[in-house]
Amino acid sequence: MSLAEKIKYSYADYIKWDGKTRYELIDGAAYAMASPSQEHQEISGEFFRQLANFLRGKPCKVFHAPFDVRLNYDSYDDTVVQPDILIVCDKSKLNGRSVKGAPDMIIEIMSSNTRHDTFVKFRLYQKAGVREYWIVDPKTRTVQVYLLDGGKYTINYYTAEDTAPVHILENCEINLADVFNDTIESLESYDDISKQILIEAMKTAGISDEKIEEVIRNAELN
Questions:
Q1: Per-position DSSP letters for 47-103, written without gaps between them
Q2: Residue 2 domain-assigned (yes or no)
Q3: Rounded CA separation 118/86 (Å)
Q4: CATH value at residue 43
Q5: Residue 198 lies in a domain
Q6: pLDDT digit string (tens) for 156-205?
Q7: Residue-wise burial string across 108-120, b where 16 or more C-beta atoms lie within 10 A, e elsewhere
Q8: Does the residue 4 lie in any domain?
Q9: What are residue 213's DSSP bridge partners?
Q10: What is the average per-residue pLDDT within 6-12?
Q11: Is residue 163 part of a domain?
Q12: How many domains does the chain have?
């Protein structure tokens, strides 16, 4: 079916598409997903390896994309995302082909479309109740870890030299040196990290996405 036929879609529409192009649904709007790069796959694979090894024989399960997550399946069912890595501890949310509701943890690896992960999905996951959300930046070799506290995310910040705890899993830690080892790109500049810290500070202060983007654009021009 052509995506031009409708303006708003639901999961019922989504599962009928031919699968040649991967899509996510955000409030009924369809967004095509680009194919991941080699670097993206290397980083995703190492996260999955470490988490799968830790969770062997444990009740929580780790999955990697493509795997559908229906964040509002019990209402409009019009928001379907495919996180790079996700952990589900409540088996009742799994129906064999999708996750019904919020996973306990999500890891997204940033690509060229940084706004999607740092703004759009940030708001979605916070609202849906994802307990722990990691944004991985291959360019700066850093990880932003968001923990849900009273319905809002608080941030912890890690670099490639750190071992980062997985807060939803007792005694689980991710060796970030192994995650970023031998990836194609390396740290470009401290300016990239400073910009990300500024973005997070403004989001925590409740500043709108549009205003944050305006501030960042102006900073890049100066």
A1: HHHHHHHHHTTSS-EEEESS-EEETTTTTT---EE--SEEEE--GGGB-SSEEES--
A2: no
A3: 17
A4: 3.90.1570.10
A5: no
A6: 999 999 999 999 999 999 999 999 986 544 444 445 556 666 676 677 66
A7: bbbbeeeebbbbb
A8: no
A9: none
A10: 88
A11: yes
A12: 1
